[in-house]
Write a structure and sequence with these properties.
The structure is a single chain. By secondary structure, the chain is of the alpha/beta class. It folds into three domains: 21-158, Orthogonal Bundle (N-utilizing Substance Protein B Homolog, Chain A), CATH 1.10.940.10; 189-242, Sun protein, domain 3 (Alpha-Beta Plaits); 247-461, Vaccinia Virus protein VP39 (Rossmann fold), CATH 3.40.50.150. Helix content is 41%, strand content 14%. The protein contains 18 helices and eleven strands. The chain has helices at residues 21-36, 41-46, 53-65, 67-77, 84-97, 107-119, 128-140, 142-149, 153-157, 161-170, 175-182, 199-208, 250-255, 278-288, 304-317, 361-364, 367-384, 407-416, and strands spanning 189-192, 213-216, 220-223, 240-242, 267-271, 295-301, 322-325, 340-346, 388-398, 420-429, 454-461. The strands form two sheets. Strands 7-6-5-8-9-11-10 form a seven-stranded mixed sheet, sandwiched between helices. Strands 2-3-1-4 form a four-stranded antiparallel sheet, covered by helices on one side. Strand 6 (295-301), helix 15 and strand 7 form a beta-alpha-beta unit. The longest helix has 18 residues, at 367-384. The radius of gyration is 23 Å and the shape is globular.
């Protein structure tokens, strides 16, 4: 899952040396149209010119975080939706303007540049006057229009109604906190490579170049401000990876106390859905640190291109794994028949726990996706469990906050596999933004501030 994406820089007003705002607004509108057509934001950004990408990405992320409010306001301003290109540009502008206190641009600049963007595009040229009229009407009646949309849950929470309803059912005491966290910007979090440096040493390296950061978890570092990752100290030497603090729990959960079947041998491990390789790398780092004997890791992924990315990431870190293209649900194609000490199953899921980093997810998912993905998760659990040796472990995790992809899945697995024992596990981790308190048992004491939503269940195999 895409859980180790870096954070997005905040939207800021352009200087005279930057690309004109109207061009960035055009790009953000194109991103919104792509998402509305079912394309992921990551894929859509790859098609944006490199020089435009940082500004367009920042505007696109901001728009998707506040799209519910923007769409509700557009409905107040124009009962009949304009053509898709004009609607997208208007919603981008409304997402940027609706909250006067947090608006990154002055009203004059935003209206002027949005209208300029409309005039300079073939698809919106004839809608420029309409867009200008809507935005000026909004600025005149901002407070009244925003108040009218306050009765719309999708405008209040900036999530689809079905998503809000599902969270209220799954997390009746915490659904509002989850939604609020989803609408914040996630910080840039690094995982220090324990084979090359320590958390304390790396914090000192950052301080030496005047980059403010704080520790999180055992090997994590949270940067106060997002930075260009390749320019950070030690990047080329493999001193760190980008990985959320919640995702950094996987390797310790699976490996702590796990011994190979033959004393002194290396652990035999499978990372069943490995791309982009963050957890694969952590397994290798963790197994080889603290005088560990190390591990032989099979990193499996169904996508050949993504397997190439796993190899690139491991090479930068100075690590090696057996990387194979294969379907985890078809072990006959890739398993050598020798029982495994441990399996990490980071299963395909809705990604509902990482909305801070991927704000398009909430608008791309459909209610039926949950059951479809849960069926895939159940199949993978049932298929991979026989590969684990007696005394071995399987760690099931998803970057989801939906119960169907977490506790419900784990309990169904236990009901059908009498040789499985649930070990102490964090269970559901709710996304946290800013300093908070522990939300689940089994979480390190210093993992209390910033992390995404995740689910973990650790199973150990014993005689039935």
């Amino acid at each position: 899952m895409p859980s180790n994406s870096p954070s997005t820089p905040p939207v800021s007003a352009p200087t005279s040396t930057q690309i004109p705002l109207w061009r960035q607004l055009q790009g953000a509108a194109s991103l919104l149209m792509a998402v509305r057509d079912g394309q992921s934001l990551t894929a859509a950004l790859e098609e944006v010119d490199a020089a435009l990408r940082p500004g367009v990405q920042a505007l696109g992320f901001h728009t998707l975080r506040w799209l519910g409010r923007a769409e509700a306001l557009r409905q107040q301003l124009a009962k009949r939706p304009p053509p898709p290109e004009a609607d997208a540009l208007l919603c981008v502008a409304l997402a940027l303007a609706w909250n006067e206190q947090d608006a990154p641009y002055t009203p004059y600049v935003l209206v002027d540049q949005t209208v300029e963007a409309a005039k300079r595009s073939e698809g919106t040229r004839h809608q420029a006057s309409f867009i200008n009229g809507c935005l000026r009407a909004f600025l005149r009646e901002r407070d009244a229009l925003v108040a009218k949309t306050d009765s719309n849950p999708q405008a209040i929470w900036n999530h689809p109604q079905w998503w809000v309803d599902r969270l209220r059912k799954d997390h009746p005491l915490h659904w509002q906190a989850i939604l609020r966290a989803n609408n914040t910007r996630a910080p840039l979090i690094l995982r220090v490579n324990a084979l090359k440096t320590t958390q304390a040493q790396y914090l000192m390296a950052l301080a030496a170049v005047h980059i403010e950061a704080v520790p999180v978890g055992t090997h994590g570092v949270v940067l106060a401000q997002a930075q260009a990752v390749p320019l950070l100290p030690g990047y080329a030497d493999g001193h760190f990876s980008v990985q959320d603090a919640a995702a950094q729990l996987a390797a310790p959960l699976l490996l702590d106390g796990l011994q190979p079947s033959v004393p002194g041998a290396r652990l035999r491990l499978l990372d069943a859905c490995a791309a982009p390789g963050g957890k694969t790398a952590h397994l290798l780092e963790y197994a080889g640190s603290a005088d560990g004997a190390g591990a032989d890791v099979l990193a499996l992924d169904i996508d050949a291109r993504r397997c190439g990315r796993v190899g690139q990431n491991l090479a930068r870190l100075g690590l090696q794994a057996d990387i194979r293209v294969g379907d985890a649900a078809r072990p006959a194609d890739w398993w050598d028949g020798q029982p495994l000490d441990g399996i990490l199953l980071d299963a395909p899921c809705t990604a509902s726990g990482i909305v801070r980093r991927h704000p398009d997810v909430r608008w791309l998912r459909r209610p039926t996706d949950i059951a479809q993905l849960a069926a895939i998760q159940a199949q993978l659990l049932t298929t991979l469990w026989p590969l684990v040796r007696p005394g071995g472990r399987l760690l099931y995790c998803t970057c989801s906050v939906f119960v169907a992809e977490g506790d419900a899945q784990a309990q169904a697995f236990l009901a059908h596999h009498t040789d499985a024992r649930l070990m102490p596990s964090p269970g559901h981790l709710r996304p946290q933004s800013g300093v908070g308190s522990k939300v689940s048992a089994g979480i390190p004491d210093n993992l209390t501030g910033e992390h995404d939503g995740f689910y973990y269940a650790l199973f150990e195999k014993h005689s039935a």
